[in-house]
Design brief:
By secondary structure, this protein is of the alpha/beta class. It contains 17 helices and 14 strands. Strands 8-1-14-9-13-10-12-11 form an eight-stranded mixed β-sheet, with helices on both faces. Strands 5-6-2-7 form a four-stranded antiparallel β-sheet. Helix 2 packs across helix 8. The longest helix is centred in the middle third of the chain and has 26 residues. The two termini are 18 Å apart. 37% of the residues are buried.
């Protein structure tokens, strides 16, 4: 994946935009769908655990209820008396609240306990009993909840016997008549196995989906082209898919000096033994090959003017993102246009081009920058047997102790000027800009920079720092 990173300074507004993290709901949904089997498995497991816990650890509760009708023809409390119409529903509803208060008094519940023959404390009885008006009518219902269905029925019927008598002694002119007596419940009212199982399933689903969503939100790994465009505003030149050939029928090839030197070449390489890497040419997948051709085309359109030679640097935010592989394939695709191309390995800390291309590791660029040999002596030939196109390569050479000083030296500037006179394109494989400053030392002498970003490897923070 290439990014056209020209040397135009980013303003403060763009830098702030690079540091912002946007939450893409579509991305979160895709992340959850990608882990749908995990979400389903955890949800089912939670549902099973809740069902088992409900069955073995929650005591079933039974409810028995008695209904009362409020009769409020007239009543008096103490010395005060009041005549009421039997149709006054507001007053009747107020009486319901009064009856509930009387029901919950200690004396009433003690009488209920004695009548039912139940050995429970006042606090326990009060917690077992609930009362409320039925649909805002003059009827109210008293419900008793107990783990013993017979106990629930006895207490509810004890209330039906005690409460009307108790009300009659406190509020004159009113009464509470039993509309429906309590019966022994045939099934527990709680817990609901179906309801609890569904709650367990929903809880597992929400927790698992939430964890996946949080991980996705805080995961700054580059997953798609949209992630790249959110970090920087420079165009994506090409997205390279899997490099592997789609079938085993892909050809294998070697690199070496078995072919004649390309016409107009600057120099020829020493003889090397052919190797069998499959990093460019017909050995890679068709989609990858087309992606590199697209990169080549967009690069040609990106350069303005009539310069005879273009110097292009390739770097990345982190090591291992494929910048050297991209540099090799870019050089190869440019050479297919019958252009004279040279690839220079400027990564003198961890050089990889010599191993990838099967060329000599020494002498190399470091040898020339330290005055040990001329530039012509470093150029090696890289070609594929059976392919008429080829390009030249300069290896990194021996690892120096001061690569930054060498790359920023006047000797390096003069070497690039000399290469410009003999080639159409000079491709520089630079170290990762996010790890060392070597690439920044060379950036002032190049015509353009390509930043290679590896999917599911690089992160937004590293990419943002590399862009800056």
């Amino acid at each position: 994946m290439g990014l056209d990173l020209w040397r135009t300074a980013m303003n403060e507004k763009e830098m702030k935009q690079n540091e912002e993290m946007e939450i893409d709901l579509g991305r979160l949904l895709r992340a959850i769908l990608d882990q749908a089997w995990v979400v389903a498995l955890v949800s089912i497991l939670c549902a099973v655990l809740v069902f088992v816990g409900t069955f073995f650890f929650i005591t079933p509760q039974y409810k028995s209820a008695a209904m009362f009708y409020v009769n409020n023809t007239s009543f008096s409390v103490g010395d005060a008396s009041l005549k009421l119409s039997s149709g006054d529903l507001v007053t009747s509803r107020g009486l319901v609240d009064s009856y509930i208060v009387i029901l919950n008094t200690r004396e009433t519940l003690n009488d209920v306990r004695d009548y039912a023959g139940i050995s429970r404390s006042y606090a326990e009885l009060k917690g077992m009993i609930s009362a409320a008006a039925v649909n805002e009518t003059e009827i109210f219902q008293v419900t008793v909840t107990s783990p013993d269905p017979q106990e629930a029925e006895r207490l509810a019927n004890a209330i039906a016997y005690i409460l009307p008598k108790r009300i009659g002694t406190i509020i004159d002119g009113t009464s509470a008549k039993v509309v429906d007596a309590a019966v022994v419940p045939s099934a527990p009212s709680s817990p609901s196995y179906t309801k609890n199982t569904l709650i367990g399933f929903a809880l597992g689903f929400v927790l698992t989906a939430g964890i996946i969503a949080l991980r996705e939100i805080f995961d700054v790994t580059i997953r798609s082209e949209e992630d790249v465009t959110q970090v920087c505003k420079h165009p994506i030149l090409s997205a390279v898919p899997d490099m592997a050939a789609p079938s085993k029928g892909g050809s294998y090839y070697g690199y070496g000096s078995s072919r004649k030197k390309k016409k107009g070449a600057y120099a020829a390489s020493a003889k090397q033994e052919p190797k069998q890497p499959t990093i460019m040419g017909p050995g890679i997948s068709f989609a990858a090959s087309e992606a590199y051709k697209l990169l080549r085309t967009k690069l040609q359109f990106s350069f303005a003017g009539d310069s005879d030679c273009r110097v292009i640097g390739l770097s990345s935010a982190l090591s291992g993102e494929g910048k050297s592989l991209t540099a090799v394939n870019l050089a190869y695709t440019l050479s297919q246009l019958d252009k004279k191309v040279i690839l220079v390995d400027c990564d003198m800390r961890r050089p990889t081009l010599a191993d990838k291309l099967g060329i000599l590791k020494k002498p190399g660029l470091s040898s020339h920058l330290t005055g040990q040999c001329s530039l012509k002596e470093l150029v090696q030939y890289c070609g594929i047997p059976g392919d008429e196109q080829a390009f030249h390569v300069i290896a990194a050479g021996q690892n120096p102790p001061n690569p930054v000083e060498l790359l920023s030296s006047e000797k390096m500037t003069e070497a690039l000027k000399e290469l410009r006179q003999h080639y159409d394109y000079v491709i520089l494989d630079l170290p990762p800009v996010g790890e060392v400053t070597d690439a920044m030392a060379v950036a002032k002498t190049v015509d353009g920079m390509l930043l290679v970003v590896r999917q599911n490897y690089c992160n937004r923070l590293a990419l943002s720092a590399a862009v800056r």
